[in-house]
Amino acid sequence: MAAFVGLCQVTLTVPGSTSLKDKRRVLRSIVDRLRQRYALAVAEVGSQDAWQRADIAFACVSAEPSRCEAILAECVRWLETRSDIELVHVETEIL
């Protein structure tokens, strides 16, 4: 049986952030929610020292590539509903 890995990397801004502490608070909320609700592996992968910018990546595993695509798309839609961030770039890949 084959396994597929869905990867998504997003670049986002946190316009209301005035410090790294503000940004980390927002990111912690996002990371915790993605992990709990969607059972994903999630990490901040770039822009760690920027106050208003963040790069996060998340991944899922499934026996069907369409399931990976659906999970990642649902996560991106959820991110788009958040009023405290703005998505700048989204890149997905199924391996």
Give a description of the structure:
By secondary structure, this protein is an alpha+beta fold. The chain has a single domain (4-94), classed as TT1725-like (Alpha-Beta Plaits, 2-Layer Sandwich), CATH 3.30.70.1120. The protein has helices at 20-38, 65-81, and strands at residues 4-13, 41-46, 53-62, 86-94. A hairpin with a 6-residue loop joins strand 2 and strand 3.
Overall mean confidence score, pLDDT: 94
Structural category is: alpha+beta
Q: Helix count, per DSSP?
A: 2
CATH superfamily: TT1725-like
Order of helices and strands: EHEEHE
Taken as a percent bin, the fraction of beta residues is 35-45%
Biggest pleated-sheet summary:
4 strands, antiparallel
User: How far is the N terminus from the C terminus?
Assistant: 14 Å
- Proportion of residues in helical segments: 25-40%
The CATH class label is Alpha Beta
Low-confidence stretches: none
CATH topology: the name is: Alpha-Beta Plaits
> Which of globular, elongated, flat, extended, rod-shaped describes the shape?
elongated
Number of domains: 1
